[in-house]
Design goal:
Largest interface: A-B, 36 and 23 residues
Largest sheet of chain B: 8 strands, mixed
CATH superfamily of the largest domain in chain A: von Willebrand factor, type A domain
Shape of chain A: globular
Number of helices of chain B: 16
CATH class of the largest domain in chain B: Alpha Beta
Distance between the termini of chain A: 26 Å
Shape of chain B: elongated
Strand content of chain A: 15-25%
Largest sheet of chain A: 6 strands, mixed
Oligomer: heterodimer
CATH superfamily of the largest domain in chain B: Class I glutamine amidotransferase (GATase) domain
CATH topology of the largest domain in chain A: Rossmann fold
Number of strands of chain A: 10
Number of domains of chain A: 2
Strand content of chain B: 25-35%
CATH architecture of the largest domain in chain B: 3-Layer(aba) Sandwich
CATH topology of the largest domain in chain B: Rossmann fold
Number of domains of chain B: 5
Structural class of chain B: alpha/beta
Radius of gyration of chain A: 21 Å
Chain lengths: 299, 695
């Protein structure tokens, strides 16, 4: 994530206080949508669907001047839009995702992100599926588009918890093997695994003509190693311990971390995979924008 | 209490250990990147921490150790405040006059001696022994330190040379009387090799084994020093108006090649000079050619331009310049016909009257027959020449031997009347330069093959001698005796030989003095050659006295019929000054004799006395011993070995003498170093802890 910023309204830390994922997702999505000049919230096809109260940012060409002239009320016309996008959210629930330095773990952040995207996709008439994986695939929910489906997805997200070792490459290959419909694949993971294996798995999706977005999620403490003095680090996946002088190795650690990220960035660019480096203090807007951008391309 | 301080050393260790245990445990997503970090960084950090711990321990240890006020005691330590008797051997030979970096060695030696006195306290005793001091004057210990200081301040560096053994012995003897518990010997010297002979090793038995000996080296390399080792006349007799030649031997004992001006003064007036270049370590002989303008006794000084050791830059001599010399010719083959007379050519050459009959030569000849020889008083002659004398008797030999040994010159010309069987046994023992053999004959004549151009007889004649047309038809074959020099050589045997006998010289001309056996009397160089031979071998009417600095000079004086008082004036003094000494001459054979011992300074001295109311003056020269100019020195360690001193302490920098002595007497205090170490460690700890460790 190149330019980290704090959003006044969508600070993940504040959103985390909203325990209801659906509410959280709606808050994020609608807040985000209403903030755009051009609202992509609804498709604007030729088939009229309903009126909606005008919100700042809506395209004025859909503004209904007649209604405004008659009733002095501001509405925009909404049209039904057909969708053929199938989106599969892949959420990493390995032990390393349980790490969170400031109360919000990477996994929780990933759940919020998945929920937010799910809400947006359902609103967009896209079909949404969810796969939760760790060392292997733990849960697989096929893609649907219905409020009930969304509710089910969100419930599953709330139930899931991170644990165990990582098996990203193997899990992704397994998912790709069993996917029958081309669509959009969104991977939320720290990708801490063998990089060649992960890239092979992502290329597997690309080979099946899927669009792939990767949200490579990290805690800020993972990127910076902000500790001072002697610390004993406990590996959340393996349970191993290691004592280090954090301030001494910080520079080398950052260097290694950056190498890791740069490798994914360059490999994903080469494989035409949309790569987003995400830290858990970043607002969800960027991720939503990335999704919408991909969706446009997909059409 | 101090033990508790030692316990404080545990504090940094505990801090270190506690700090290590206090690692915060942090659950972390993965150790993947931590493991990828170069583990050497962590290891290096651990080493840095250990170093920091070591520095902190060292800091505390140094501070606590300093509180103990530790000392390193010397092997000769006898307790604090012990009374000390010190014998200071001060080298005052003239090599100590050498200047280095603007300071004389001797001045550094005096400063070192002053430091020794500064280190002594009431009740300590000191004796001061000069290296060239009189051997029979025992050194006395004194506790009057203030008086000793004045004594040291008044000591002058001499011009003499001396062996160190005598001075060390006197120093040891002075300490033998000391009542003080601690006895020390200080030798302040340049340790010039010439002074430290094997005689020093004989002192090992006298030197107490446990006596500390401080060897203070005030020498050091001398950059530029050319010494004038000798300045001697090539010819024994000097005459007014004739060119003379002074042969000078120079040595460069310094470390650099130099060029120096060499000047010759007669009675204080410069009459000759030249520049000489001499390589480092080299030796050179050159000559100056003064012409004496007046007769009588003359003071001569040859002087080199100043360098770092001036004392060896001058040589002095006194010379009697003659206007007339008397030579005795003994004609062994006299003839009524002048051209057949054996001594005709020799007489003509030596007397050399001009066309107008005016006598130009300073040599006056007197010719006698062999029968008249014994009637002659040889002391009246500067030189005796025998020409074709058939044989010599015992009486002849006895007289000639005494004459030559006493400094007279004898020149032998051979010829057809000479009986080798008479010469060989009579003169062959110690007068004749060789054994006469058979007469060698050559109808065509042999030429002079070689002559020694460097010899004073030939040196000044190099431009005149042309041997191409010389012919010698007959000459005696001679087997040169040991110690005989061949000055000129024919193609088949020697022509002119030289033998030194006592103070005199014998020259042997193996051919005839006339033209019976050779044509040399007709050659142009015959006249000057004969003159040179007479000047070389002849005896001056008065011998120039010369002694070495510190040696007594004995003067033989004429008979006056009463007590004779002689006043002695040193170099640079006039009759208006106070004489150095006024001595009464003791009766001696032929007159009186006086011996003057105050020859402490090089130069020309004058002895004034009165004979029948007439003021008379005698000059004599005093010169330094050139051996002292050899500035190569022994390492003080070698001197310590020679002395067999177990506890010798070498002090190379005299300025550090006081410190070295204090350490030897009291020990080396370590707390200063420990405090200094603590400061250094504290700075290092600060750097390691705050900069290096965090980097």
């Amino acid at each position: 994530m190149r330019g980290r910023f704090k959003s006044k309204y969508y600070d993940p830390q504040k959103l985390a206080r909203i325990k209801n994922l659906q509410l959280l997702a709606r808050t994020v999505v609608e807040g985000y949508i209403s903030g755009l000049h051009r609202s992509p919230f609804k498709g604007f096809s030729s088939e009229f669907a309903e009126y909606r109260e005008y919100l700042p940012g809506d395209d004025l060409k859909h503004f209904d001047w007649r209604v405004f002239a008659r009733s002095d009320k501001r509405y925009v016309r909404q049209y039904e839009e057909e969708t053929n996008l199938t989106c599969t959210l892949l959420l990493d629930a390995s032990g390393s995702m349980a790490f969170g330095s400031d109360g919000l773990s990477k996994f929780e952040y990933g759940c919020y992100l998945a929920a937010t995207l799910t809400y947006l996709m359902i609103q967009q008439r896209d079909q949404v599926g969810l796969v939760i994986f760790g060392q292997d695939v733990r849960q697989r929910i096929p893609a649907r588009n219905s409020p009930a489906h969304m509710k089910f997805l969100l419930e599953q997200l709330e139930k899931a918890s991170p644990e165990g070792e990582t098996g990203i490459a193997a899990s992704l290959h397994a998912i790709a093997e069993t996917s029958t419909r081309r669509g959009l694949v969104i991977l939320i993971s720290d990708l801490i695994d063998d990089q060649d294996g992960v890239m092979n798995a992502l290329n597997h999706f690309r080979h099946d003509r899927n669009e792939v977005i990767v949200f490579n999620t990290f805690d800020p403490a993972e990127t910076d190693l902000p500790y001072d003095g002697l610390v004993e680090l406990l590996d959340l996946e393996t349970g191993r311990k290691m004592q280090v002088r954090a301030d001494v190795i910080r520079r080398d650690y950052r260097e290694k971390f950056q190498q890791f990220v740069r490798r994914y960035q360059s490999d994903c660019a080469a494989s035409r995979v949309d790569y987003q480096l995400v830290t858990t203090d970043a607002p969800f807007e960027l991720m939503l924008a990335a999704y919408l951008n991909q969706r446009e391309k997909f059409k | 209490m101090i033990h508790l301080l030692w316990a404080s050393l545990a504090v940094p260790v505990l801090i270190h250990l506690v700090h290590r245990r206090k690692a915060r445990r942090i659950p972390f997503s993965t150790l993947r990147f931590v493991r990828m970090v170069d583990q050497r960084v962590a290891r290096r950090q651990r080493l840095k921490e250990l170093l920091l711990l070591a520095l902190r321990l060292a800091l505390l240890a140094a501070l606590i150790g300093a509180l103990y006020r530790p000392m390193i005691r010397s092997a000769t330590f006898q307790g604090a405040g012990v009374r000390t008797a010190a014998a200071i051997v001060l080298d005052n030979t003239y090599s100590m006059r050498a200047v280095r970096e603007g300071t004389r060695r001797f001045d550094r030696a005096l400063k070192a001696a002053g430091q020794i006195l500064d280190g002594l306290t009431h009740g300590d005793a000191v004796s001061i022994v000069l290296l060239d001091g009189p051997a029979d004057a025992p050194a006395e210990l004194s506790t009057a330190l203030a008086g000793l200081r004045s004594q040291i301040d008044s000591v002058q560096c001499g011009y003499g040379t001396a062996e160190a053994a005598g001075a060390i012995r006197r120093a040891v003897q002075s300490l033998a009387q000391a009542t003080q518990a601690r006895k020390e010997i200080y030798v302040i010297s340049d340790f010039q090799r010439v002074s430290w002979t094997a005689a020093v090793e004989e002192l090992q038995a006298e030197l107490a084994e446990d006596m500390p000996v401080f060897l203070v080296d005030v020498g050091g390399e001398v950059g530029e020093n050319v010494s004038l080792d000798s300045a001697e006349f090539g010819l024994k007799v000097q005459v007014a108006g004739a060119a003379s030649e002074v042969f000078c031997t120079l040595s460069n004992t310094g470390a650099k090649n130099v060029e120096r001006e060499l000047s010759l003064f007669l009675d204080g007036e410069k009459v000759a000079e030249q520049n000489v270049g001499i390589a480092a370590g080299g030796m050179l002989t050159t000559s100056l050619r003064p012409i004496f303008g007046r007769t009588g006794e003359t003071a001569m000084e040859v002087r080199l331009a100043p360098d770092e050791l001036d004392a060896d830059n001058a040589r002095y001599a006194t010379v009697t310049v003659h206007d007339r010399l008397l030579a005795l010719l003994v004609n062994g083959d006299a003839s009524g016909a002048p051209y057949l007379d054996e001594t005709l050519y020799v007489d003509l050459a030596l007397s050399a009257p001009s066309v107008g009959g005016r006598v130009l030569s300073p040599i006056e000849t007197r010719t006698v027959t062999p029968a008249e020889f014994l009637n002659q008083r040889l002391q009246d002659y500067a030189c005796v020449l025998l020409a074709n004398v058939p044989r010599v008797s015992d009486l002849w030999v006895e007289r000639l031997r005494r004459y030559v040994t006493d400094g007279g010159g004898l020149i032998l010309f051979l010829g057809d009347r000479v009986d080798a069987a008479s010469y060989n046994p009579m003169l062959g023992g110690d007068l004749l330069p060789g054994t006469l053999g058979d007469v060698v004959e050559s109808a065509e004549g042999v030429r002079v093959r070689r002559y020694d151009g460097t010899h004073p007889v030939f040196h000044a004649l190099a431009d005149y001698v042309n041997v191409e047309r010389t012919r010698v038809e007959r000459f005696f074959g001679v087997s040169p005796a040991e110690g005989t020099g061949v000055l000129a050589e024919l193609e088949s045997g020697p022509l002119l030989l030289e033998r030194k006998v006592g103070a005199g010289i014998v020259l042997l001309w193996t051919s005839s003095a006339d033209m019976d056996w050779n044509n040399l009397p007709a050659r142009p160089f015959f006249l000057p050659l004969l003159h040179q031979m007479v000047y070389y071998a002849g005896r001056p009417t008065q011998r120039g006295e010369s002694v070495t600095v510190g040696m007594p000079c004995a003067l033989d004086l004429p008979e006056t019929g009463g007590a004779l008082e002689v006043a002695f004036y040193g170099p640079g003094q006039t009759e208006l000054d106070e004489p150095l000494a006024v001595l009464e001459a003791a009766p001696a054979e032929g007159g009186g004799r006086v011996e003057f011992s105050g020859t402490g300074q090089p130069g020309v001295y004058r002895a004034l006395y009165s004979v029948d109311g007439a003021e008379q003056a005698r000059l004599f020269a005093v010169n330094v011993d050139p051996r002292e100019s050899q500035l190569d020195c022994l390492a003080p360690q070698e001197v310590a070995q020679m002395l067999g001193a177990r506890f010798a302490k070498v002090v190379r920098d005299p300025d550090e003498l006081a410190l070295v002595v204090r350490r030897e007497r009291e020990g080396l205090p370590l707390w200063d170093y420990l405090f200094a170490l603590a400061i250094v460690v504290a700075v290092a700890e600060s750097f390691v802890g705050n900069v290096w460790l965090r980097h």
